[in-house]
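Why do we care about 3D structure at all? Because function follows from shape, and shape follows, mostly, from sequence. That is the central idea of this module. The next example makes it concrete: a single protein chain, its amino acid sequence, and then its structure expressed as tokens.
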Amino acid sequence: MGLGSNKSYNNKTPLELLAAAGEELCLLMENVHFSSVYKTPAMYVTDQEDFYNAAAVGYVEDDTDAFDFLKKINQIEAKYGRDRDREIRFGPRSLDIDIELFGDEHIDSPTLQIPHIRMEERAFVLIPSIEVLKYSADEIVREKYIKCLEAVEKTGGAEGIIKLQEFPKAVENGTDR
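And the structure:
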């Protein structure tokens, strides 16, 4: 999962929104691990605040449908202020949660693409994803994305990304602060 925020909502800062989303994701998945939080320049629409990005990896029941899971993710986004009907594509948002990978599924529909169609070009997704994929059973997938990141770095696509802090420990695996 990729998480991002660059806009406050309901008196919550983008970092607080990421933490709240993390708590919600812990209710949907088991054995959840989060990457560090990174501050990243906006991509595509650059005239906006920097984003705070992170990644999460966790497990769902084998019979979980990716489209049903997406609906739950969209409900979390809406709960924290995301209104897809009113936003500018690639513009500011209070919360963005993308399903980057979903097991070994490959889906290409108008509402869901897995693997995420722009994952391999986005250092702000690759860097935190690589950090958490070490908790995944598939080291081959992690190595693939390390190679993608190396290619992005060669073009300067990782410039300006700053590692800020660990994801709030109170969220990760339901532990106390």
